[in-house]
Design goal:
Blueprint (H helix, E strand, L loop, with lengths): L2 E3 L9 E3 L2 H9 L7 E5 L5 E9 L4 E9 L9 E6 L5 H12 L3 E6 L9 H22 L6 E2 L3 E2 H7 L6 E5 L6 E2 H6 L7 E5 L7 H9 L3 E4 L7 H13 L1
Parallel strand pairs: 1-3, 6-7, 6-12, 7-8, 7-9, 10-12, 10-13, 11-13
Antiparallel strand pairs: 2-5, 3-4, 4-5
Helix pairs in contact: 2-3, 2-7
Length: 240
């Protein structure tokens, strides 16, 4: 059954117009009045609904039964990412949302190619949030990971401690421990935050700053992975 993210309050018996993005998706799929769909607003669970009216650019639905279905991982994993350039960040956000990431923090770092500020940063954040929502529509997730506003690494390090008791930096420098070894010492549902660099990785001073802030330096193995691959590999290991 087609699924649509509808970030508004939902209640059985309510009739409402779908948000513009969901309405466009319904029309692209050529759904018709009377067709059954699934709605989720990101607050947990999902709702069965029926299309009541198809307008030229709007779609009205009747909300019916609630289903208390959760498909989220036991462990909340957060990613703080030096943003890869071009379309790689879009791909990373999409795949991380499919896998079950809890949140994503895009970062400016010393080696970042992609630089965002002002309206451009705000628009990119909104775009990545919509990418995450679309990924949840596809994969069945009922909680959309939050994509935070673009930040500098120093600000991220200062704000990181309350997010997760275990914070790890993916590091190419000496003194790392295998990530699998570090995770074995943690409860299966203990939250974790990963810091990962962009193309070229974190600079030596950034790596040192993360360690000084309490991040555990970890390695994924002997191979040097692309920025987007490394972040997703860490996510998969933490959710296994």
């Amino acid at each position: 059954m087609p699924r649509f993210h509808c970030p508004v309050p939902l209640a059985a018996g309510a009739t409402l117009d779908l948000p513009a993005a969901a309405a466009r998706h319904v029309q692209v799929l050529r759904l018709q009045t009377g067709d059954a769909i699934t709605l989720f607003n990101g607050e947990g669970g999902q709702w069965q609904a029926t299309i009541e009216r198809m307008g030229r650019s709007d779609v009205a639905v009747r909300v019916e039964t609630f289903e208390a279905i959760e498909r989220e991982p036991a462990r909340r994993v957060h990613l703080a990412l030096g943003m890869p350039a071009n379309e790689r960040m879009d791909w990373l956000v999409e795949k991380a949302a499919e896998l079950g990431v809890a949140s994503l923090q895009p970062l400016h770092t010393a080696h970042s190619v992609l630089r965002l500020s002002g309206d451009r940063a705000t628009k990119k954040q909104a775009h990545w949030q919509s990418v995450a929502a679309a990924a949840c529509e596809q994969c069945g997730g009922n909680r959309v990971p939050a994509v935070q506003p673009v930040a500098d690494l120093a600000a991220c390090l200062r704000a990181s401690e309350p997010i997760a008791p275990l914070r790890c930096v993916l590091s190419l420098a000496e003194g790392t421990r295998p990530l699998a070894e570090v995770l074995r010492g943690q409860p299966a549902d203990a939250p974790v935050l990963f810091l990962s660099g962009p193309e070229g990785g974190l600079s030596p001073s950034e790596d040192a700053a993360a360690r000084a802030a309490g991040f555990v330096p970890v390695t994924l193995g002997p191979r040097v992975l692309r920025a987007e691959t490394a972040a997703l590999a860490a996510l998969v290991l933490a959710l296994a």
